């Protein structure tokens, strides 16, 4: 706690004075973040640092395993953050960001580690599909580190699928007002790989080229044109 208190003192004395005008503006006008980022609570993964975002740029929701539970009538912190970001703040981009050496994914690979943590085990049921994919579709001779990495990457895709079950997200996708992104942060190298939904693979973004995206409204087929044609024919 001593280090945290020193950090607060440093912020107040050295950082805040140079950004006081921005903070006053944010306090007066409210926030208008560019995106919602759903990332892991791992202390090594800092969304604002990775993206070099400033105050007011990102609306961040962090939890163990960067999980998005499928929508249900049960209230929860992640579901509430998604709904608020879209309907109250009007974000047009949502990022699900996984990372290397993820403890949650290690727990999926080794359930015995979760025996003393029943709440964590229950939470990670939302990632079981990612573990099943790796067990069934990947080579059996993967190293331990490669297996955890593969589960973490597949988990990003699984959580993107869960994200599309939320009514606020589904409605915005139907009208092409929102884009979903899947990222993977490598702690050791600092690299961020981006999920390309069109190619179903993670890739390194290239400066000057369009950023690959996981899901856009245009990717989502819906029956609106068919219904309109049927009504016109009546």
Automatic annotation (TrEMBL):
Superkingdom field: Bacteria
Keywords, comma-separated and alphabetical: Lyase
Enzyme Commission designation: 4.2.1.1
Keyword Lyase belongs to the record: yes
Descriptive protein name: Carbonic anhydrase
Species this chain originates from: Rhizobium mulingense
């Amino acid at each position: 706690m001593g280090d945290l208190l020193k950090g607060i003192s440093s912020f107040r004395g050295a950082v805040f004075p140079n950004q006081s005008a921005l903070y006053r503006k944010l306090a007066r006008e409210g926030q208008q973040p560019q995106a919602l980022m759903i990332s892991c609570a791992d202390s090594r993964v800092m969304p604002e640092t990775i993206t070099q975002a400033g105050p007011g740029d990102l609306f961040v929701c962090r939890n163990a395993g960067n999980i998005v539970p499928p929508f249900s009538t049960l209230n929860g912190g992640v579901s509430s953050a998604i709904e608020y970001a879209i309907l109250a703040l009007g974000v047009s981009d949502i990022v699900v960001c996984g990372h290397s050496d993820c403890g949650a994914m290690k727990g999926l690979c080794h359930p015995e580690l979760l025996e003393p943590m029943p709440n964590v085990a229950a939470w990670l049921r939302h990632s079981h599909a990612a573990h099943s994919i790796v067990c069934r579709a990947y080579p059996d001779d993967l190293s331990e580190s490669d297996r955890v990495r593969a589960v973490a990457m597949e988990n990003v895709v699984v959580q993107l699928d869960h994200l599309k079950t939320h009514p606020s997200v589904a409605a915005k996708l139907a009208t092409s007002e929102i884009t979903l992104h899947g990222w993977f942060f490598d702690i050791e190298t600092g690299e961020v790989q981006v999920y390309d939904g069109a190619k179903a693979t993670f890739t390194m973004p290239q400066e000057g080229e369009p950023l690959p995206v996981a899901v856009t409204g245009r990717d989502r087929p819906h029956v609106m044109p068919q219904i309109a044609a049927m009504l016109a024919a009546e």
